[in-house]
Amino acid sequence: MNTMGKTIMITIGIIALIVMGLFALNRETSKTNEVVSNVSVMQSETSRNESSLSEQPTAQETVTTTAGSYQVYSAEKIALAATNDVVMFFHAAWCPSCRALSQDIEQNLSAIPSGVVILKVDYDSETELKKKYGVTTQHTLVQVDQDGNQIKKWNGSPRLENLLSQIQ
C-alpha cells in the first residue's frame, strides 16, 4: 500500500473514532437529561402536593373549639392545647402507614371529638421538631401541652380510633 493509501486509511480510522466518541457522548447526555427530567418531574409533583396541603385552605384546617379538627402543623397552633388536646402526627408522604392513617382521619373527621386537634407535621422537613421530641421514625404521634411540652409519645396508630384511645 502506498503512502497516500495509508494516510487515507488513518484519516478514516480517526474520523470513525471521533464519530463513535460523539455518539457515545450523545447517549450519555441523553441519559443524564432523562434523569434530570425525571427528578424535575418528581420535585414538581412533590412541590405541588406540599403546596396543595399547605396553601389551599380546607374545612379541616379551620380551627374550632366546638369540634375536633385535623390541620396542617404550624408552631402557633400548639397554643390550642390551652383548651384542647393537641396531638402532632409526624407524617411522611412516602410512608404507606402514614397515608393510611391520614386517609382514615380525613374520612372520619366527624368522629374527632370536640376539643381534639390533630396537627399533621411533615416528617421530612421538620427536623428541629423531630429532635425536640426524639422522633426517629415517621408515623410517630406526640401529644403536647400549650407550651409544647410532651405529654405522651407513641408510634403506629393504624386508625383514628386507635389514635384517640391514646390521648391522655
CATH class of the largest domain: Alpha Beta
Helix and strand element order: HEEHEHEEH
Total helical segments = 4
The outline comes out as rod-shaped
Please, what is the CATH homologous superfamily of the largest domain? Glutaredoxin
Domains counted in the coordinates: how many?
2
Regions with little confidence, pLDDT below 50 for 5+ residues: 35-66
Q: Supply the helix-strand structural class.
A: alpha/beta
What is the average per-residue confidence, as pLDDT, rounded to a whole number?
A: 79
CATH architecture annotation of the largest domain:
3-Layer(aba) Sandwich
The CATH topology of the largest domain turns out to be Glutaredoxin
Terminus-to-terminus distance: 96 Å
Order of adjacent strands in the largest pleated sheet:
1-3-2-4-5
Radius of gyration over alpha carbons? 28 Å
Percent in helix: 40-55%
Q: Outline the biggest β-sheet.
A: 5 strands, mixed
Strand content: 15-25%
Question: How many β-strand runs?
Answer: 5
Tell me about this structure.
With 168 residues, the chain is of the alpha/beta class. The protein has two domains: 1-56; 60-166, Glutaredoxin, CATH 3.40.30. Helix content is 47%, strand content 17%. The protein has four helices and five strands; from the N terminus they run H-E-E-H-E-H-E-E-H. It has a five-stranded mixed beta sheet, with helices on one face. Strand 4 (140-144) and strand 5 form a beta hairpin. It is rod-shaped and about 100 Å long. The N and C termini lie far apart (96 Å). 20% of the residues are buried. Mean pLDDT is 79; it is low at 35-66.
